[in-house]
Amino acid sequence: MKLLKLLAGAAIALPLVLGTAHAQNSDPLKTLVIAVPSDAVGLEPGANRAEPVGSEVILNVFDTLVAWTSPDFAELEGRLAESWTVSDDGTVFDFTLREGVMFHDGTAFDAEAVKFSLERTKEINPYVEATFGLISEIAVVSPTEVSITLSEPYPAFLSILAQPQSAIVSPTAVEAEGEGFATKPVGTGPFKFNSYQADTSIVLDANPDYFRGAPQLERIIYRVIPDASTRRLELENGGVDIVQQQGQLAAIAAEDVAALQSNPDVAILEAPSQIIRQLEFNNNNPDSPVADIKVRQAIVHAIDYDGLLQGVFGGTAERVYGPLTTNSWAFNPAIQENAPTYDPDLARSLLAEAGVDPASLDFTLYSFQGPLWGAVATFVQANLADIGINVTIAQTEFPAYRALQTAGEFDLALDGRQPWYNDPDAHITIGYLSSLADTAMTFRMPEDAELDTLITQAQQEVDLETRKQLYFEIQEKIAAKVPGAYLFSPKLIVFTRANVKGLVINSAPPLNEYWGVSKG
Fold first, then answer.
1. Tell me: the pLDDT tens digits for 403-438?
2. What is the pTM of this model?
3. Looking at the domain 9-44+189-273+491-520, which fold is it?
4. Domain residues of the chain, as ranges?
5. Please, what CATH class does the domain formed by 63-174 belong to?
6. Cβ 454 vs Cβ 440: under 8 Å
7. 78 bridge partner residues
8. 3-state SS class at 456
9. DSSP string of 466-502, one letter each residue
């Protein structure tokens, strides 16, 4: 099947680089300055590949047909779609669209714009081929009705339609700007694109005619500040209002939390994520020592999970017990009840039962580069040393790391997945379907017809409760195989000035919307 083949506050100090016009025209209490660690990539839906800064800009400049409902983000609500129905077989999605919505260029939003936008993303963006490739037809029924037909059932498709790549663009602006649309995006969202200066800033202005009501802010300024200590200093001094979470997902936030939690001018927002970081075994190499399940069990019992969370992360991460995080709607509580515990004595006994002398085990532990991964690798290395296993750490650049993982040239590897749509499919299918073992950074699962069938059934099952029970069973079968040691899920942490109000953190994807945000 196509999908299975391809899934692999206070006054602000405006920077001079923004120009005197922005500084003179901006009311400090109506302007939100956001510090981000890197320049935006993919400022418009058609080219977006889930890069965080560009993706967040999209969700504030554009609208999608549906979106996750704040503050719990557990149910979908209509945005440009007023309502929708799904056929009994899960392949036809019929949408009734909102009337009277206008793009920022003054042209009208309608069903033709939906068809144009989704077909354009499908054509030009290979990143979404696995999901958009399921679209067999987009039919304009009337100016306010559109029907999308899939080649096979995919219940998570509504989640896909809430993602930045599914946002609706102005066909008139695309045709007028051509390639220039990438830096002059036009949507229907609460903020209009004003300007972009590479590696420096992005400026958005409020859309007073937004169909949900005008934003309380008049302007958003994204400032690119690569250095974490500079971002923190700017926040403390009032030069920025928000330090974005994207800077925390590849670093340990405990130092920043400790430094800022006693500052009355700063607020710290935390939310659980659906990100999973794990120690993966090569589950598809019969010649590897970890082919023996008792060796795998020994390793997972050798890891001090609570010590990792407190000693390395200082409470800025939560434990992951299995293939899904505890805040997933499909999480099986039995997985937490039966999760491995830190027990070095049991680990040594399991090695003895396997007839393995720990001194004979000499692993290379591969990981991504950076201080976060280095700290985690060092912690795991010390835990395994305690039971007599020698581990050498190899922090590796991403292209080489991905190549060795997909080729199966490893025994142990630190890895993770950051889901960009709110569905268990985002973790389960690509991580554990055996046919995808060598197509991406996965657990390299060996062929298991029963498990593979369950994963495919869950991916395509239309009834939500039936899907949930299938995922319960899948999690239990995966956990029994001990494909890795599930380590932690970093919390989503956003630092703001204390007068920033109304910001709610979304867990999947971890992108913020600012329509309801204000400064007091």
1. 999 899 999 999 988 887 889 999 999 899 999 988
2. 0.87
3. D-Maltodextrin-Binding Protein; domain 2 (3.40.190)
4. 9-44+189-273+491-520, 63-174, 276-490
5. alpha beta
6. no
7. 66
8. helix
9. HHHHHHHHHHHHHHHH--EEEEEEEPEEEEEETTEE-
